[in-house]
Amino acid sequence: MSALRVQIERIKEDLLALASIGRNEDDRGNYRMAFTDHDMAGKRWLQQRIEDAGLQASMDGAANVSGVLDGKDGGPRIFVGSHIDTVPCAGMLDGALGVVVGLECLRVLKESGTNLQRAIELIAFSDEEGRFGGTFGSESFTGLVNVERIESSVDLNGVRLFDAMQAHGLDPLKALDARRPAEEILAYLELHIEQGPVLDEQRLQVGIVDNITGLRSWSLKFAGEANHAGTTPMDYRKDAFMGLADFAHEIPRILEENGGEHSRATIGKAEILPGAPNSVPGNVEFSLDFRDPSPEKLDELSLAFQRALAAISRRRKLMFEFSVQGEIHPVDCDLNLVKILQFAADDLDLRSLNMLSGAAHDAQVVGRIAPMGMVFVPSQGGVSHSPAEWTAWEDVEAGANVMLQALQHLGTQPS
Length: 415
Fold this sequence. Notes:
Elements: H1 8-19, H2 37-52, E1 56-59, E2 65-69, E3 73-83, H3 96-112, E4 118-125, H4 136-141, H5 147-152, H6 161-166, E5 185-193, H7 198-201, E6 206-212, E7 214-223, E8 227-228, H8 240-258, E9 264-266, E10 270-273, E11 279-280, E12 283-292, H9 295-316, E13 319-328, E14 331-332, H10 335-347, E15 352-357, H11 362-366, E16 372-377, H12 393-412
Parallel strand pairs: 3-4, 3-5, 5-16, 6-15
Antiparallel strand pairs: 1-2, 2-4, 6-14, 6-16, 7-12, 7-13, 8-11, 9-12, 10-12
Helix pairs in contact: 1-3, 3-12, 8-9, 10-12
Keywords: Hydrolase, Metal-binding, Zinc
GO molecular function, one term: hydrolase activity, acting on carbon-nitrogen (but not peptide) bonds, in linear amidines
Cofactor: Zn(2+)
């Protein structure tokens, strides 16, 4: 067993310092959304911490921040990281924990004089949380972005990604140069909070992820006819909201008949138009997020949802339309990396579980071109994307030591 251990006090110090960047003192939430002033301040803070550790710091064209601990071999590198951008009113751990723990692992390896054969690179990806569609940094890293994506991406307020980057002195098209060839990536590892209740409820210390679920995100619209709420008889109405209500009630049936054990579907946003108390809704615009670890199940769900939308439209005398806002493919974690992470957890005598990730991560994007593995630590009460998000320090330390052992093992192996 490796004698190396992380210093939890340094992890605490870094997490608390990063959380102070973009914190709102009224609701205690973090507001470090991608390519805002606070996000860029967080990137500058991280670069300084990397340099303080005696490592090489850099930022690529997608504004991904990196720190490198050199190895003897000039071959493929090991990457470790996550993201430091947040959703609005976020907690302090989502994404940031993986970056801070990755930095601490590199510090420990450097300070111990570990004889690394392979370089290890810390990376903090841009816009994982989706201000401009999500996983922009890791998509740039893997060569999945193009000019159209860079120029057409906008946030919910109509701000263009192109303009947001330029406002901070960045050349958006330089994101095309952020690509790392697959042959240069030996492995990618990511530590993350679970963002769900499983580990916490079972009183486990770490989760070893073996699969990351796929995700499809749609924007939908039912179009009917706005009319007077008092003078329009019920059977004359073309009520768009009733179409949405019918569809929402169809979701459990569709998941039961066409999904699997891990299928999920959510309508997280809806807007009723014209939105007057005395008007029959003429239009309803809403979102649909559905997930499953099986590509085949995602296809079945997609077809079933479209059939339900069509049937409801006929019955309610409505029109419907939908557009695909995003699609992330399910990815299996690399079996060898799963074994290495599990061995580290067992070696540290930790209570662990092999598990699915129901949330999307940068690891999922990198896993399309290179071996990838993830470690989860418990989320108290299953809460995330909230100032109430929390993980006990002893669980943070446990997960960080699993990551340290895995990086040490991979980094010291001969080419």
